[in-house]
Amino acid sequence: MTQPEKSYSWTQPCCHDCWDAGNPESPSPRTDRGELETCVYCAMPTHSGIYVRVDPKLASYPSLER
Ligand SMILES: [Zn+2]
User: Fold this and answer.
1) Neighbouring C-alpha atoms within 13 Å toward the C-beta of 10
2) In the predicted structure, residue 4 carries a pLDDT above the cut 90
3) pLDDT tens sequence across 25-61
4) How far is the CA of 58 from the centre of ligand 1 (A)?
5) Please, which residues have CB less than 5 A from ligand 1, an ion?
6) Cα 4 to chain center, whole Å?
7) How far is the CA of 8 from the centre of ligand 1 (A)?
8) Residue 62 alpha carbon to ligand 1 centre in Å
9) Residue 20 phi, psi (nearest 5)
10) Residue 18 CA, ligand 1 centroid: distance in Å
């Protein structure tokens, strides 16, 4: 059995804009409550505190696991 790439997390930060684009029915409250991280979709720095579960192999800008 091959292990998936372990250095990238499956839980990735997502900025307000990308969240809204993917979830128009439940838009972000636009409160910055997280630490500074890099959006997995657009690579912009964000404090959104929003996280999405995504396959790091398919993600554009996956953050390293900490
Ligand atoms: Zn984004």
Assistant:
1) 5
2) no
3) 999 999 999 999 999 999 999 999 999 999 989 999 9
4) 15
5) 15, 18, 39, 41-42
6) 18
7) 18
8) 11
9) -60, -40
10) 4
Nearest alpha carbon to residue 18 among 5, 27, 7: 27
Kindly list the distances between the CA atom of residue 48 and the CA atoms of 4, 7, 15, 36, 57, in Å, as whole numbers in the listed order: 27, 23, 6, 8, 23
pLDDT digit string, tens, across residues 5-31: 568 999 999 999 999 999 999 999 999
Q: 45 C-alpha vs ligand 1 centroid, how far in Å?
A: 8
3-state secondary structure (DSSP) of residue 22: helix
- Check if the beta carbon of residue 41 is closer than 8 Å to that of residue 18: yes
